[in-house]
Amino acid sequence: MSKSFWQALPKPKAETGFWSWVTTVDHKRIGIMYFWTSLAFFLIGGVEALLMRLQLAGPDRNVVGPDLFNQLFTMHATTMIFLAIMPMTAAFFNYCIPLLIGARDVAFPKLNAFSYWMFLTGGIFLNSSWLLGGASDAGWYGYPTYSLAEYNPGFGVDFWVIGLLLTGIGTLVSGFNFIVTILNMRAPGMSLMRMPMFAWATLVTMFLIVFSFPVITVALLLTLFDRRFGTLLFNVMAGSDITLYHHLFWVFGHPEVYIIVLPAMGIVSEIIPTFARKPLFGYPIMVFSTMLIGFVGFGVWSHHLFTLGFGPVVNTIFALATMIIAVPTGIKMFNWLGTLWKGRLRMTAAMMYALGFLALFLIGGLTGVMLAAAPSNMQIHGTYFVVGHFHYVMIGGALFSLFGAMHYWWPKMFGRMLDERLGKITFWLLFIGFNLTFFPMHILGVFGMPRRIYTYSAEMGWTGLNLVSTIGAFTMAVAVLAALYNIFSTMRKPKDAPADPWDGRTLEWTLPSPVPSYNFAKIPVVTARDHFFYQKYPQLEPLAPATEAETAAAAELVHEEDEIVMPGNSYMPFLMSLGLLAAGYGLIYSMTVFWIGIAFTLLCMVGWAFEGDNVKIVRPGGAKA
Ligand code: HEM
Ligand SMILES: [Cu+2]
């Protein structure tokens, strides 16, 4: 058969070096790219936070001034949420999920690469606004009227809207990809209820993404239409109701906080059993609490809008719905404590971060319940109390867990062990700095300090606590520098991490560190939760033999033992993201460029579909064919 035009196009051949990364479809390499990129954005978001804290260190200071301050809090939040924390969880679920469930890759490897490139594209696009006339200053939720062209001329908000649309494409695609992967690619015997908790957390998170990202997409598109194409969707003078935007935003926004925190809970549920040397206490209840949190999380959005004036009935319903979430969350807390109970604890750096998560997330959860009580919310809404609350959830919850994940999975991802002692010192610096920065904010909030003000006068009596907060922020900065030093000095060490440094429980620890491209030379048959652990310690709990069906399923995969077919690299995901990037700039500067970008993207889509699969045959132990 003669090759079609598309199949005759050049295919990436590089196995090492720059182009091998640009064209890779390997979930592990994609995970590693997510990691470095999100780390870079985390540093940018961190510098933005430090600038804000410098400005607020004392009364009447003029470090950045009001205009820049507004851009800083908008971009800090947007960067931390969409470009740092979410993609850093993506780094770990990309790298780990196929390993945890015994698969060779995700269901759609090329789409996975596309997700990464859309994340990078959107991140660059958003941040390029700093250099092209200024970033958005409409807050991370971009409410109209702040976001409308009459009140906010210039391109900042356009960059923000389009940048989020671009990353959103990647996120949504990941959502579908990982749902299919987790449901369809599990090793024989890996039933849903034998899956590691992190896989469950990821599965539920992906459903949240799939149901909530379309909603923010609509909100952003409507804003874009008002700004660029003259519609009046949010123009109150034309009879529009801007609370439509508020609802759309928070129907997405609240599930978004669980998109951030459920994977963090999943990570902690891997770390604690490993270092307590006990199975996760109440595993089935943990699974159902995760689902319940995800489900109820869609029914609470109006707790962000208590002050909008819906009246007592609506506010009561949303207050109660919100408090119901405390039940499955509390169950999880007790299950983690139950796992620790009478365990033989090993205080590694990863374990310390997991325990830090428990303590700090508990505080964030409790202040959350305080905010959920509508009457007290009326008082502290829009104050620094809220800023204190959500940082306990986002940093104390998500970031601590991600730092734990870093120490835990680093040997698997990079073949080297991070320095444990430095890791523990970093933990304490971060823990102390964090509490110094954010605990005083609760008190400031109750004293009436509104959020998003760029300065205050000495008479308000807020000076001392603000200074403490700024000192805390710089302590955290030192902790982050220590973590960076740990990372970069580790990367210069030889790759000598053992396959199973922590006496692990899950399948990734059966593989060499770092993991070969095909993951499993032989797909494992799983007969129990924590199968690997009981394989090592049959005296604790003998493993049941595999059933006939499981053995048969494994036998079907046997021919892959000496000849593994792996998906081949492709230029198309990267090229498509370039087309969409051009279209993004086109929307702002020139519709011609927009249409060229779209046409190029469509061409790449066709190329993607018809270029053929370019498969790689790998022989474990032998040379590549
Ligand atoms: C590294 C230490 C951090 C410091 C010192 C810090 C500090 C701040 C400050 C001073 C504000 C402005 C508050 C205001 O004026 O209303 C802020 C807002 C915010 N931060 Fe952070 N932050 C940090 C990390 C993070 C992380 C990791 C996340 C999320 C995952 C995050 C999410 C947010 C959000 C959502 C806002 C709200 C912005 C808005 O009002 O629109 N921050 N932060
Ligand atoms: Cu909420």
List keywords for this structure.
625 residues, mainly alpha, two-stranded antiparallel ribbon, 18 helices, binds copper (II) ion
Structural notes for this entry:
The protein is mostly helical and 625 residues long. 64% of the residues lie in helices and 1% in strands. It contains 18 helices and 2 strands. It has helices spanning 18-22, 27-56, 65-101, 109-128, 156-184, 197-228, 243-276, 283-296, 312-340, 349-372, 374-380, 384-414, 420-446, 463-491, 531-536, 548-556, 572-589, 591-610; strands at 564-566, 616-618. Strands 1-2 form a two-stranded antiparallel ribbon. Helix 6 runs parallel beside helix 8 (283-296). The longest helix has 37 residues, at 65-101. The radius of gyration is 25 Å and the shape is globular. The two termini are 22 Å apart. The mean pLDDT is 94. Bound molecules: protoporphyrin IX containing FE (HEM) and copper (II) ion. Protoporphyrin IX containing FE binds at residues 46, 49, 52-53, 73-74, 76-77, 80-81, 85, 139-140, 387, 390-391, 394-395, 398-399, 437, 451-452, 473, 476.
Main pleated-sheet profile: 2 strands, antiparallel
* Structural class by secondary-structure content: mainly alpha
> What average pLDDT do the residues reach?
94
Radius of gyration: 25 Å
What's the arrangement of secondary structure elements?
Elements: H1 18-22, H2 27-56, H3 65-101, H4 109-128, H5 156-184, H6 197-228, H7 243-276, H8 283-296, H9 312-340, H10 349-372, H11 374-380, H12 384-414, H13 420-446, H14 463-491, H15 531-536, H16 548-556, E1 564-566, H17 572-589, H18 591-610, E2 616-618
Antiparallel strand pairs: 1-2
Helix pairs in contact: 2-3, 2-4, 2-14, 3-4, 3-5, 3-7, 3-12, 4-5, 4-17, 5-6, 5-17, 6-7, 6-8, 7-10, 7-12, 8-9, 9-10, 10-12, 10-13, 12-13, 13-14, 17-18
The structure holds protoporphyrin IX containing FE and copper (II) ion.
